[in-house]
Amino acid sequence: MKIYLAGPDVFRPDALSWAEEARALLARHGHHALIPSDNDETSAEGIFRANIEMISESDAVIANLDPFRGCEPDSGTCFEIGCAIALGKRVVAYLADTRPQLDKLAEFYGGTLARREGRVVDPDGLTIENFELPVNLMLGISCQIVQGGLEDAVLALAAG
Hints:
Elements: E1 2-6, H1 15-28, E2 32-34, H2 44-57, E3 60-64, H3 75-86, E4 90-95, H4 101-108, E5 114-116, E6 119-121, H5 137-142, E7 144-147, H6 150-159
Parallel strand pairs: 1-2, 1-3, 3-4, 4-7
Antiparallel strand pairs: 5-6
């Protein structure tokens, strides 16, 4: 299968070596990796179009949903997942921490969550959804979520 790898990994300081390791990992499992850095585009519009094209060409998407620059997944990755779902692609996402989102946010905010009208709210008074999912319901329902890393997601994809 051709598998698009979505995630903030392209921003890592070792992004090129990560991409080669990811490519080799997928090849060992009989798959071809499509990685956002696989193109020569340098403009925002060019990168956007190239990534959409790769998602369209893929058979499936594997997404890294680990927190990025805060307590939520990378917003670009979330968009790519939405695009893949809209195109009817299967999406397997991985997280190192699959505890319920509420538990992770309580830890992130140092236990300063409160209750208002029977709902849990953050320090700004904004409701936190509590569906026992490790991420927002739009990701937690649309993706198959696995605990671990890239190889765990590849194995889950193969298992169906």
